[in-house]
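Researcher: We're teaching a course module on how sequence relates to structure. For the next exercise, students receive a sequence and then see the predicted structure as tokens, so they can try to spot secondary structure elements on their own. Here is the exercise chain.
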Amino acid sequence: MTSSLADAAAPAIDSGAAGELPRRHSPSGAAPTRRRRRGVAALLGLTPFAFYVIVFLAIPTVIAVGSGFLDANGGFTWANLSGLAEPAILGSFFGAFFLSAVTAVVGAVAGAALCFAMLRSRAGGVTRSLVDSASSVLAQFGGVMLAFAFIATIGAQGLVTVLLRNQFHINIYENGVWLYTVPGLILPYLYFQIPLMVITFMPALEGLKPQWLEANATLGGSRATYWWRVGIPVLMPSFLGSLLLLFANAFSSYATAAALVGQANNIVSLQIRQALISETVLGRANLAGAMSLGMLVVMIVVMLGYSALVSRTARWQR
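Model: And here is the predicted structure for the students to work with:
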């Protein structure tokens, strides 16, 4: 009797379990669907940025660099690359390297000093907020607007220039109008290089842990020992990374130099403009594409170095 009841109940239990099986698996089956929908939504959210990158960055880069391998008739050629060895082209690359290196070093040192000065200010305080806000704005202030600001302020007939000449008999252009030369670009470039250094280097300074200083003091070390043995080694990758970022920022700048220097082609970005305007430079068509390729190689090398240094710095900021 007992066995018959058990045998009768077994199909019911099996059928009940079988009936519950789809309900148990339905939530887990819906989870991958929800994840796929979230993934599709995330991809759709990236569409505007991807459109911008492809249309305004990727396609123009491919066209500009690809034109360097074409001759006047549209055929493939290596002749444009040999034009990079011409003295005028090499001189423009040297001018760009000089301008970028000087403004990067001076901007990095001045910006790091400003960061150290702000380190004692309260985070979120008035001073820190003002410096952070000003740095964020000034780091993006460039191009024709910046050139006009310097022309109106310290240009040949600028406000400060005229005031110094008429009131204090000081002529800042006694030996020539230096503002409209490549060395004269150093001052306008520092206007946005120093704020950029503040933005990039300040997080590294804030990442220094107070426990490191306390451990150094516990072991009998002085403040100088802390900076020499701990602070500087930890901050050096971040400082060098910021230095490379400033170099890349200055090396790729165009509008400010074009507005101030004018027709002189002492830096490679202006030489590219001249090549595009005249269509042929040094007897070679599409030489602008070859110079663009040279700039692209320089930028890739610099940014790879920057990425490596940032990755090294990130280990200390976790």
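Model: If you want an answer key for the exercise: The beta strands are 280-281, 284-285. The first strand starts at residue 280 and ends at 281.
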